[in-house]
């Protein structure tokens, strides 16, 4: 495995771990399915990635191994993972992201108000996450997570891969806040954003703008400039919101 792929694998492992959290409420099975499916759709666990060992995953999500097995079985039925038994076996992601505007987002019209409101929520949450991340003394590992995630967005070869890489970058930024509640909030808004972006075509001009904004955000966070990082993310959120409101009506 070369250095780039190794760094990518490490980044994906870290993101998969940080976006999963103890399931709350009495519906452990449904909560497990929701969290795992969201992590897979957003690319925290990308195509071909192995899920963590069963014991580790159950402990992280605060559920029994029996409940976890039922949730994974549900994901297998949905075609999102495949499982092999025996020595060297495990559960691997088989979900491939759909091409935006072709794969579609079922039921998006019925959720229009909720999804558009999530853009307001995002404008509060993600700039704040950047401010906090830039204000921390980041480790070399955290800085590498950011730069690797940014490079993956720029290197994406097709719209579907780009969409997942974009989500991973935003999750990476949330993860270096070291705030579980912030990570949960960013994961929530990215899930809503994913549904909306899947419903519109990929526009190259917008991709170019986003790439420059992503780079400015990451550079400001690594430089420790909290105000600049927050403002860059505010501009990024505003531009994306304008595009979505215009195209979704």
From TrEMBL:
Keywords: DNA-binding, Transcription, Transcription regulation. Signal peptide: none annotated. It holds the Pfam family FCD. PROSITE patterns: HTH_GNTR. One of its GO terms (molecular function) is DNA-binding transcription factor activity. Residues 26-96 form the HTH gntR-type domain. Gene3D superfamilies: GntR ligand-binding domain-like, Winged helix-like DNA-binding domain superfamily/Winged helix DNA-binding domain. This is FadR family transcriptional regulator. It comes from Nocardioides marmorisolisilvae.
């Amino acid at each position: 495995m070369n250095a780039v792929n190794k760094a990518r694998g490490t980044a994906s492992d870290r993101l998969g771990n940080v976006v999963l959290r103890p399931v709350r409420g009495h519906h452990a099975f449904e909560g497990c399915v929701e969290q795992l499916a969201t992590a897979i759709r957003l690319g925290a666990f990308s195509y071909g990635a192995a899920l963590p060992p069963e014991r580790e995953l159950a402990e992280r999500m605060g559920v029994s191994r029996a409940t976890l097995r039922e949730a994974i079985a549900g994901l297998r039925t949905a075609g999102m993972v495949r499982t092999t038994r025996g020595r060297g076996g495990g559960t691997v992601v088989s979900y491939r992201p759909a091409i935006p505007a072709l794969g579609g987002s079922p039921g998006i019209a019925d959720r229009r108000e909720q999804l558009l409101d999530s853009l307001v929520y995002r404008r509060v949450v993600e700039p704040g996450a950047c401010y906090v991340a830039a204000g921390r003394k980041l480790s070399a590992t955290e800085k590498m997570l950011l730069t690797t995630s940014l490079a993956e967005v720029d290197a994406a070869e097709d719209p579907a891969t780009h969409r997942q890489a974009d989500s991973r970058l935003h999750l990476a930024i949330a993860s270096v806040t070291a705030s579980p509640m912030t990570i949960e909030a960013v994961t929530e808004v990215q899930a809503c954003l994913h549904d909306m972006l899947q419903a519109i075509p990929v526009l190259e001009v917008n991709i170019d703008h986003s790439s420059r904004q992503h780079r400015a955000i990451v550079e400001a966070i690594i430089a420790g400039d909290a105000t600049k990082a927050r403002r860059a993310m505010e501009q990024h959120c505003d531009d994306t919101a304008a595009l979505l409101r215009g195209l979704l009506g």
